[in-house]
Every structure is written in C-alpha cells, then in structure tokens.
Amino acid sequence: MIKLLETMTQMTVPSGNETLIHDFIKNEIKDYVDEFETDPLGNLIAHKKGEGKKVMFASHTDEIGVIITYIEENGMLRFTPLGGINAHYALHQRVKFVNGAVGVVSFENKDDSTIKNLKTSDLFIDIGAKSSEEAEKIIKIGDAGAFSGEFLQCANNIISKALDDRAGCVAMITAIKSIKEHKNDLYFVFTASEELGLRGAKVAANRIMPDFAVALDVTRTGDVPGKLKMAIKLGGGVAIKIKDSSFIAHPYIKNLMINVCEKNNIKYQLEVLEAGGTDSGAIHISGGGVPSGCISIPTRYIHSPSEMINIDDLKCAALLATKMIETGF
Ligand code: CO
Ligand code: ZN
Question: Which of 313, 317, 316, 301 shows the shortest CA–CA distance to 223?
C-alpha cells in the first residue's frame, strides 16, 4: 500500500491530463473488476458487476498544478493555476511538466511589499531557457505541470505532494482488491478535474446514475497551530464527512459508515469542514439527487508539496470502504 502510494503520488497529473494515470490504475485492478470505460472528460470507470442497487465510489486522479499562458522575451514562463494554488505556496517550488521538462517558480521583485502581497501574477517559471525561442522549443502555451514533492516517511506519517487525492485513489484500489463478497452493482470512478470544480464526478454520476455514492478524498485537520477550530486529528482514524461547502451527507450513508466502523472496530472521527468541497458535492445533486457520503483522509498542509497523512488513517479509510461494500447498501 505504501509502495503504491509512493508510485502514484510521484506521477505528474495536473487536471486535464488524467488519462496519463489510467494504464497504471487498470493494471493494478484488472483482475478484480469486470470492465473499464474511459469517458470523454477523462474519468476512468471500473465496473464490478452485481445484482443489487448501483453504488458509485469516486476518488480524483488530478492534482493542483499550473498551465502556461505566456512566454517572456527572456525565456521565463508565465502561468495560471490549475486548481487552488496560492502564490506563497508556489514560490520557489519545482515544477515538473507533463512533457518531462522541469523548472523553478520565482517572483518579480518590484519593491519591499511584493513578497507580502504576492500574487500568482507576480510569479514566473524558470526552465533554464535563455530566450523565448529557446523556451518555445521546450514548452508551448497551454502545457501543464505540477509541483514536485518528494515522498518521505516521517514516524507513522507520509509527507508527499499529491496525497490529495492519490491517498483516496490508493484507499479505493486497496478496497477493490480486498472485497470478499458484494451484492451491489459497483462502479469505481477515478475522476477527472476535481480541482477545477468537481467536473469529472458530475459527468460520471450523470452517466452511471447511481442509487448511492461515496467519495474518497482528503480533508484538513485542526491539530496544528491556528485559529480555525476543527475536530479532526492526524492519526485519529478515518473521517466521516457530515458537511463541507459542497454538500451535506445523506443520513443513511452517514449512519451506514458509523455502524460499519463500530461493528468492525475501525477508528473514526466525525468531520465538518467549513471551507472546501469534494466530488460528493457534484454527485449528490446529479440526476434526481443521489444519497451520498464521503470517506475523508485527514491531511495537513493540503495543496502544498508537503501534504501529510497518517498511515493508519489511510488503512482505516480503505477498510471502511471495503466493509461498506461487503455489508451492502
Ligand atoms: Co484538492
Ligand atoms: Zn482532493
């Protein structure tokens, strides 16, 4: 599971480039599902057939990144964010482009206040080119990249880029491999463009029209110094989402999650996230409405290249998904 997480987090998959990770995922789970479909938005849908109600699980494969907007005379690249990046987080990070090129983000130092009020429009990416002609041989307008962030184990925690949401993908893959029995008709969707506004999940849900749905994604924690109180701790177990800014969990799914955790001794905590959303936000208002829930993995420093999760929390998330499927909807 840890090895799988390392491999998956280190892949460069900014929104819009999700098909890059499809062959890898297919190869991991091909022996455990019946068929695959890739839809026009870049969702990978794995179907594990069953007789009962249709259940959709979703975790997003895309990560936050950058897309090139303009190339300066001197060869420096201007960009716009793909997803929620903040200028201070991006400053002096390394960027890996989908085409393999690399660079570093720096800023235009106009005066003493630039750094304080840093905006992404003050930033540029240096790919080592001496001129626009040289830069254009390496990168074209519209090329996308993501920030690099080494995978490290730190006590019982993992530090890496893209744990949002490769951690959810790994939990879902682990569940797919672990299911012993199931009665539902199962759709596991590796969704696209979540970071651009839950776009892939919306389309996938409209295509599948599930009776129930569960997303797997990261959530923030309230256990680091800061003003905003939140009752989620790293190492406190899987988080059962009750509300975020995109949705409120359906009581049936929320209670199913709590009962499954209680019955199988899975450590859990209840989550209310004040700002932020995930795929379940789009899924629950698809079609005529879908009773939905969300399995959250507590994560510190989300959308930085040094996100941190706890290994036991990740195992609890995978186990909760597995046992929900075995219990049935
Ligand atoms: Co995110
Ligand atoms: Zn996410």
Answer: 301
Per residue in 153-186, pLDDT (tens digit) is: 999 999 999 999 999 999 999 999 999 999 999 9
Tokens 């969704």 — which residue? Answer: 191
Query: What distance in angstroms lies between residue 164's CA and the mean position of ligand 2's atoms?
Result: 5
Q: Which two tokens stand for residue 194?
A: 């979540």
Determine contact, residues 191/279, Cβ cutoff 8 Å. Answer: yes
Q: Give the C-alpha separation, 299 to 5, whole Å.
A: 14
Residues labelled catalytic: 194
Peptide bond into 165 cis (omega under 30): yes
Query: How is 249-281 classified by DSSP, letter by letter?
Result: --HHHHHHHHHHHHHTT--EEEEE-SS---HHH
311/298 Cα distance (integer angstroms): 10
d(CA 324, CA 205): 19
Closest-approaching ligand to the CA atom of 191? 2
What residues have a C-beta under 5 A from ligand 2, the ion?
164-165, 217
Q: Could you report the per-residue pLDDT of 13-30, keeping only the tens digit for each?
A: 999 999 999 999 999 999
